[in-house]
Request: fold
Amino acid sequence: MSPHGRPEGESLNAKHEGTSVRINVSRQPRLRLKLALAATLLLLGACATPPAAAPPARDVSTVSDQSEGERRARLRLELASGYFTRGQTATALDEVKVALVAWPEFTEAYNLRGLIYASMGETNLATESFKRALQ
Reply:
């Protein structure tokens, strides 16, 4: 029987977050101490392992992320939409043109331009604008 009340040759088991260690207790106190220290270091190492990194979250786009040209184009498109809703197609078309000068890749502006041209009876220009909006 050992001084700790365990029979000689008995095993000690340690478990932490799915990691288990089994230590055989021997008759030699120094070996027991070394084994206990090794088991402790092993368990502490498992605790210190960082969790897997989560994928980076996509940032939410806000007004501050827009370029100056994009901001101006969006404002002009809002104006154009308002004019178009009120039946002021010539003014709406002018605002869309200004928006496209500020931001030539603005697909929503091409779409509204197509609607304006269609309402004016300009079928070919409307078709070109809709095709450009889809690019």
Q: What stands out?
A: The beta strands are 11-16, 19-24. The mean pLDDT is 78. Helices lie at 29-48, 68-85, 89-102, 107-119, 123-134. The first strand starts at residue 11 and ends at 16.
